[in-house]
Amino acid sequence: MNESKPDLSSIQQQLEGDHKKRRALPPVHLWKPDFSGDLDIQITRDGRWIHEGGQIKRPAMVTLFSTILWREGERYFLVTPVEKVGIQVEDVPFFFVGLDVRQGSQGQELVFTSSTDDVVVASAEHPLRVETAQDSDEPSPYLMVRYGMEGLLNRAVFYQLADLAEERDGEFGVESCGQWFVLGKS
Fold first, then answer.
1. Which domains does the chain have, with CATH numbers?
2. What is the residue-level pLDDT of the chain in tens, covering all 186 positions?
3. This prediction's pTM
4. Are 182 and 172 in contact (CB under 8 A)?
5. Are 181 and 173 in contact (CB under 8 A)?
6. Cα 121 off chain centre by
7. C-alpha angle with apex 123: 102 to 107, nearest 5 degrees?
């Protein structure tokens, strides 16, 4: 294990050159560096990235770091070929702020855009689910992004999704890529 404290700027420097060339995701699933320690970063429920108590204000930096997120069990990490640092995630690491509807080979496709520029189409590979809080009946809609990590849909996107919902067999839901996703009971 590396004895020095993990450093946010070293991770940024390792990634910047390659990321500027393309939006393709780095092969995080292939990287197996040793754990380097924890970094004082938290991703809040509403998608804000906090470093040492202050919000990271540069969207490009947040987007860059989001490409190297990795989940193991209940823990989240930023991973490079030579470093693996732990971070805190309040709920889930992604936050969806946009929804487009298009027609595809299997019919309607629901295309979600995250605050970190991820574009995900709800499908069998990227299922949409809704959890309802027991104490408040407040719905929390989630979409699978990658590597077992999900994103929360913001309220406006969920309302847009609810406007598209239809009723089938006593449930309200939406269809995307030939898959039916339940949003709630009728």
1. 8-89 (3.10.540.10), 94-185 (2.30.270.10)
2. 445 566 555 555 555 544 444 468 999 999 999 999 999 999 999 999 999 999 999 999 999 999 999 999 999 999 999 999 999 999 999 999 999 999 999 999 999 999 999 999 999 999 999 999 888 889 999 999 999 999 999 999 999 999 999 999 999 999 999 999 999 987
3. 0.86
4. yes
5. yes
6. 13
7. 40
